[in-house]
Each structure stands twice: as C-alpha cells, then as structure tokens.
Amino acid sequence: MTDPGLTDLIAVALGDKIMHTNGSGDRNRAYAAHVALVVEQHTNGRMTELEARVDEWSAEYRKGIRARDNWRARAEKAEATIARVEKLANDMRGWCSPHGVSLLYSDRIREVLEWTELAAVGVTRVD
C-alpha cells in the first residue's frame, strides 16, 4: 500500500524546485516521477516488512495475555488462601485450649498476615 499523498508531495516539491533552478521542465518532470517511484517502492517495501511481522507481534501479544491471565489466577488463589487463613485465625480465638495457646496462635497468625499486607504496600519496618 502506498501513500499517494506523500509521493505526490515529494515529487511536486522536487520537480518545482528543480524546474526553478534550471528551467528544463521535461527532464525535471522525469526526475520527479523517478523520485516518486523510489519513494513508492520504499513505502511498499516498508509495508511488506511490517506486514510480515504482524504474526510475530500477534504471538507476543497472545503470550502476554496468557502471562497476565496466569498471574491473575495466581493472585486470586493467593487472596483466597489468605482469606481462609484469616478465617481460621479468627475462629481460633473461640477455641478452648489450655493456657490460651489458641489465642497466642491466632494473634501470631494475624500479625503475620498484617505484616504481609504492609510489606505489599512498601512498609518494611514497623516499630
């Protein structure tokens, strides 16, 4: 596919410039036509190169979509796991255990979960 506007613009501009410099209209029109042909061939060649890479770019795009979907699935699975652990920690507070061990375990699990949430937003130290 060529860009007729581009080729015509270049050909006319060069043709007018050359015709004003030496007044030889026929030779300059032929030169302008030659320049237009060269630009058209260049444009066609470039389009062919780009069209040849469409499949490659499409494959890369699909690969990126698959990777995104895999990461999304992993994130959803991790969120579900965290929710189950949070529920367990909350449930443990009501368990009857000697020496209140279930409360200690529950508190420790909640601390770890909260630390994970803080670390996810960039907090690396809590005093």
Structural write-up:
This protein is 83% helix and 0% strand. With 127 residues, the chain is mostly helical. α3 runs antiparallel to α4. The radius of gyration is 35 Å and the shape is rod-shaped. The mean pLDDT is 78.
Number of strands: 0
What is the C-alpha radius of gyration, as a whole number of Å? Answer: 35 Å
What number of structural domains do the residues give?
Answer: 2
Residue stretches low in confidence (pLDDT < 50, at least 5 long) are: none
In short:
By secondary structure, the protein is mainly alpha-helical.
Write the layout of secondary structure elements.
Blueprint: H1 4-22, H2 25-52, H3 54-92, H4 101-120
Labels describing this entry:
mainly alpha, single chain, 0% strand, 127 residues, rod-shaped
